[in-house]
Amino acid sequence: MLCALCAVLSPVFGGGSSAAVHAPARLVRVSSEVIRLAHEAGRLGLRYERGIRAAKDEKARAVRLAQQLRGQRFVAAVLHQDAGAVARAQYRTGGFTAVGSPAVADEPLDLLTLQSTDTDRRERLARLLLEADSKSRTLAADELSSSASVQALDADASRLRTEKTALEQRLTTSRAELNALAEASIRSGRCTPVDLGNLQNELPAGQTGQDAANRGPEVSRAGWTRPLLTYELTAGFGGTGAHWAGGHTGQDFAVPTGTPVRSVGAGTVVSIGCGGPFGISVVVRHAGGWYSQYAHLSVPLVAPGRPVRAGEWIGLSGTTGNSTGPHLHFEVRRTAEFGTAVDPVEWLRTRGVQL
Predict the structure, then answer these.
(1) I need a labelling partner for 330 at 20 to 30 A (CA). Which of 16, 237, 272, 293 fits?
(2) Are 303 and 192 in contact (CB under 8 A)?
(3) Exposure string over 282-318, b if 16+ CB within 10 A, otherwise e
(4) What are the tens digits of pLDDT across the range 203-233?
């Protein structure tokens, strides 16, 4: 995503007070709803993907079982044909099916040997027939069970797909409402911090996709972390083009509206921007005289003067200000003011954080 940033300071909410003004109830409700719906969409999407994989694996198993059953039935048919041939030979030879004939056996011992060999052959054939029939019955039962499993998995995947589509539609509507409320906040000049209570700690750990946005971030030994967990890096530091005056001053992260944005390190919130090219933004002062800025937010979650820890939610992503779509513009600067930015990717890398 592209953001047009120029050397104009955004309007600042508050001065030094850490007391947050109460945000409108609708803004609190929609902000919470977007986070919860995104979390649930991630969980449901994960279940759907697992269900699709399970159905695919079970279908492949059913195909293998059907092939094995056809082969086993062919073997059983051949053995039954052999048994029929043996029975017919016994009838013709008076009970002998072995090579040789009792008519040419001159000695009683030779006759007994022929009879013993014939009995062994019949017993082996009988065992093979029983084993073949047993394997055929087992494979037929497995194939029937696998086919039933495929139908159940397909039905479950269809149900999850329907739920997933409905949930994604609700999420899209909520995100659009949050974007509209963000623009209304800027027009009114009151980008009020939203208190989401203990929502960050209430949501269980995620696994993949959007759900991972609710998982506690890894913090480097130096005490720094990523501003987002689930993202796609887009425009980098120093890029040139019509959208930036004098070059791109930060790193862009493509994320949907309402994704929790985290402070990259411990520090104190010094200002909240409300309008201008950055849209709604938060600036945090860190030890060593460094500042980090998080721009194009939909809502701030912290008030000026508030201490924050590494990984703590400080806002929700959006597309306010000079933005062409939902994303986070992240900057690291030597001062709180625009114009002293350094490459944030390299800055985080030297502090043990890889983007």
Answers:
(1) 16
(2) no
(3) bbbbbeeebbbbbbbbbbbbbbbbbebebbbbbbbbb
(4) 865 434 444 444 456 899 999 999 998 898 8
**Higher per-residue confidence, 92 vs 197:** 197
Q: And the tokens for 228? A: 């987002």
Which residue in this structure is represented by tokens 């974007």?
Answer: 179
| Separation of alpha carbons 355 and 147, rounded Å | 45
At 216 the pLDDT is 52
Q: What is the pTM of this model?
A: 0.73
- Asked if residue 181 lies in contact with residue 27, where contact means CB atoms within 8 angstroms, the answer is yes
What SS3 class is residue 132? helix
Structure tokens at 332: 């690291």
* Confidence (pLDDT) at 85: 64
pLDDT in tens, 109-127: 444 454 556 666 667 767 7
CB-based burial, 38-58: b 16+ in 10 Å, e otherwise? bbbbbbbbbebeebbeebeeb
**Alpha-carbon gap, residue 340 to 344, rounded angstroms:** 12
Please report the domains of the chain, with CATH numbers, ordered by start residue: 12-21+192-349 (2.70.70.10), 26-189 (1.10.287)
